[in-house]
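During the second year of the project, the team shifted from modelling isolated chains to modelling whole assemblies. The rationale, set out in the original proposal, was that interfaces cannot be judged from single-chain predictions alone. As a representative example for this report, we include one of the complexes processed in the last quarter. Its constituent sequences, exactly as entered into the pipeline, are reproduced here:
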Amino acid sequence: MVLFCCPLCSAPLCREGNVLRCPAGHSFDLAREGYAHLLPPNRKHSKAPGDDREMVAARSAFLDKGYYLPLRAALEEQALGLTGADSAPVVVDSGCGEGWYTAGVFHALAGAGREPRIAGVDISKFALRRAARRLPQGQFAVASAYRLPLPDGCAHLLLDIFSPLAAAEFARVLRPGGHFLYVVPSARHLWQMKQVLYPQPYENPVKVEQYPGFAYLGAVPVRYSIALDDPADILALFRMTPYAWKTPREGVERLEQLDRLETEIGFDLHLYQRT
Ligand SMILES: C[S@@+](CC[C@H](N)C(=O)[O-])C[C@H]1O[C@@H](n2cnc3c(N)ncnc32)[C@H](O)[C@@H]1O
Ligand SMILES: [Zn+2]
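Output from the structure prediction step:
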């Protein structure tokens, strides 16, 4: 069953061959890799919005080496616990990128005997090409987090991992009692990398926000450190951070000269429940 709804009239979509169609006749092609394009053209502010091909490739290369496995394991554990009452939970990953966490959560739930249905949405087609290949069991669509092509109250669990926060839209698609996991970097995430990049690094601001329609249940911290011995991995990590756009040339050159980088890693999984 198709989880997505029509981005033009919100009616349910059905699959007919390589097309998703609503009862009003709006139709959307599925790409060769299996993802759908559900971003209306008037909402597309550039020709290829979201992360570009190089950013996606750098992130995939880095994630596939397993440096962020402790975060994925924490997400899997949370997903298992939070959807424990449902044998066929619906999970939405907003800003899913190339689906590395989406796939982990799907396999954890399926491995525990559940029958999960999982939808990944991202505004970058380069990311979704990889996501759809990585997890053929998932349903993926190019769309905006601020206008998810999903019906009201459809999801048991919504994940946002370092992606744009659209709290009102997340509240709309979650069913009452459903959970929202918002993953953000901790104050000292990548501290030693920032010490190389900047003469005076700052800690990441950490602030817990309240959102209408949600009760805040607390945060699960994930802290560890990684040692990168390959300059290609150091640069791949750098390119998947926001520092890649704003670091002065001298800082990037210092990083490029390193053969090894050991750095703190920190994430907080903020947990909210739809009221
Ligand atoms: C830092 S990446 C995180 C990707 C993935 N969650 C991960 O952790 O590997 C942020 C993602 O948000 C996507 N993105 C940016 N703006 C978006 C929007 N308005 N709606 C949906 N996705 C968006 C980007 O294309 C990118 O894949
Ligand atoms: Zn329609």
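Residues 6, 8-9, 11, 22, 24, 26 surround zinc ion (ligand 2) (CB under 6 Å). The chain has nine helices and eleven strands.
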